[in-house]
């Protein structure tokens, strides 16, 4: 019981929380991006909001890039901070441009996705990620054999 009220977090619990956040938000976002990927590659005409003067196809391609590719990168923890930027932009566009005139209930989902992306941008991917694994290999000093005196 004392552990539940402890305000000091161990590094491991923070890394586990980042892992759960990454996997959870990525898996949920993929359920939105996968149908858009199918829409992008179908022969049917693209029915998607055109924003910032881009065509509907270009807007859809950018949304697919963010919601599928960037979600997969966040899922495995590769380039997490960079991968959150397109998703943050996509959620801001969805909330303020696409659903700007809609009631809050339509904007809420985009805002709920926006929060973990901002947290991951600030905190990074944590220990249980490819980012951490790659940085360990890059930053680990090469093993230097001690000189033996003969």
Précis, in short:
The protein has 150 residues and is mostly helical. The protein has 5 helices and no strands.
Describe the structure.
There is one protein chain. This protein is mainly alpha-helical and 150 residues long. Helices cover 67% and strands 0% of the residues. It has five helices and no strands. Helix 3 runs antiparallel to helix 4. The radius of gyration is 20 Å and the shape is globular.
**Shape, principal axes of CA atoms:** globular
Give helix and strand order, one letter per element, not per position. Answer: HHHHH
- Name the structural class: mainly alpha
Secondary structure tally: strands:
0
Largest sheet: none
Taken as a percent bin, the fraction of beta residues is under 5%
* Mean pLDDT level: 91
Helix fraction, binned, reads: 55-70%
What is the CA-based Rg, rounded? 20 Å
Spatial gap, N to C terminus:
61 Å
List the total number of helices: 5
* Parts with pLDDT < 50 across at least 5 consecutive residues: none
Throw out a few tags for this protein:
150 residues, mainly alpha, 5 helices
Task: Lay out the secondary structure.
Layout: H1 11-41, H2 56-76, H3 80-98, H4 104-123, H5 130-139
Helix pairs in contact: 1-2, 1-4, 2-3, 3-4
């Amino acid at each position: 019981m004392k552990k539940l009220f402890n305000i000091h977090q161990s590094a491991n619990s923070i890394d586990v929380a980042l892992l759960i956040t990454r996997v959870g938000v990525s898996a949920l976002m993929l359920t939105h991006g996968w149908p858009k990927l199918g829409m992008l590659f179908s022969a049917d005409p693209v029915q998607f909001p055109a924003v910032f003067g881009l065509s509907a196809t270009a807007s859809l391609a950018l949304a697919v890039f963010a919601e599928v590719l960037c979600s997969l990168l966040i899922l495995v923890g590769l380039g997490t901070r960079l991968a959150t930027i397109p998703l943050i932009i996509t959620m801001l566009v969805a909330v303020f441009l696409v659903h700007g005139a809609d009631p809050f209930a339509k904007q809420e989902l985009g805002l709920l996705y926006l929060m973990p992306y901002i947290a991951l941008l600030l905190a990074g991917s944590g220990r249980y990620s490819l980012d951490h694994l790659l940085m360990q290999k890059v930053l680990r000093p090469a093993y230097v054999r001690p000189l033996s005196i003969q």
